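Exam revision sheet. Question 4 asks you to relate a sequence to its structure. Input first:
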Amino acid sequence: MPHTPGMADPVSWFLIRRGWTVVSADGEEIGRVDEVAGDETHDIFDGLAVATTTLGKPRYVPAEQVGRIEEGTVHLTLTRDQCDELREYLEPATSAEIEPGGGAVKGELRGLESRFVDPPQTQEHPVNFWRRLWFAVRRPFR
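Answer key, structure tokens:
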């Protein structure tokens, strides 16, 4: 593809970072990337969590609706009106991995940690207020 003056070169989804600008197909800024959903190990891009307001719930943009990706900017194939209809981003379910060995005490401590620090989730769930606040606070520093 020939390079067009004034346009940045396209980049891979692997390079998308939190804080990048998200732009609709009609050129309006929609928000900022909050999270990239995908599996880098298997090169599977699922979509983006996009913060449209500072403390608002992020919106989910499926990978199929992501168009051109440039350094610092993600262009969507959706218009501004279509972006307003996007559903809330739900964080993926997590899983707990149990490692063999280590003895009973170590296993009990690992079990306590998983229940209180980072409890496994069995289904997708909304991003809670405190996590949105954390994203908002650290966004300017990224």
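Marking note for examiners. The chain is about 20% helix and 25% strand.
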